[in-house]
TrEMBL record:
UniProt entry tagged with the keyword Aminoacyl-tRNA synthetase: no
InterPro entries per the UniProt record, alphabetical: Rieske_2Fe-2S, Rieske_2Fe-2S_sf
Gene source species: Hoyosella rhizosphaerae
Keywords for the protein's UniProt record, in alphabetical order: 2Fe-2S, Iron, Iron-sulfur, Metal-binding
Gene: nasE
Molecular function per GO: 2 iron, 2 sulfur cluster binding; metal ion binding; monooxygenase activity; oxidoreductase activity, acting on paired donors, with incorporation or reduction of molecular oxygen
Designated name of the protein: Assimilatory nitrite reductase [NAD(P)H] small subunit
């Protein structure tokens, strides 16, 4: 796992994009204090997923409102391909992602 940032840099319910091993990863701080990590780019039209609305289970792309499950990466609309999800955790104030 690699440290990508600090939890104190995030706001609960919002995301931020980090570059991990040359790949753009969106990290979301959930209301319960846990973090989730996914690809940062929507496969539909390249929307910035870190800017999307997020709840405990889904992030919604801000461009065309396609939802992606934070646990599997599957899109709520079957015609759109899934995104990758990554293991992420908080260690102290550090956000760690396995990409």
């Amino acid at each position: 796992m690699m440290i990508v940032g600090q939890v104190s840099d995030l706001t609960p319910g919002e995301g931020r994009t980090y570059v991990v091993n040359g790949r753009q990863i969106a990290v979301f701080l959930l209301q319960d204090g846990s973090v989730r990590a996914t690809d940062a780019v929507c496969p539909h039209r390249g929307g910035p997923l870190a800017d999307g609305q997020v709840d405990e289970a889904v992030v919604v792309c801000p461009l065309h409102q396609y939802g992606f499950r934070l646990d599997t990466g599957e899109c709520t609309s079957p015609e759109i391909e899934a995104i990758r999800v990554y293991q992420a955790e908080v260690r102290g104030d550090a956000i760690c992602v396995d990409a």
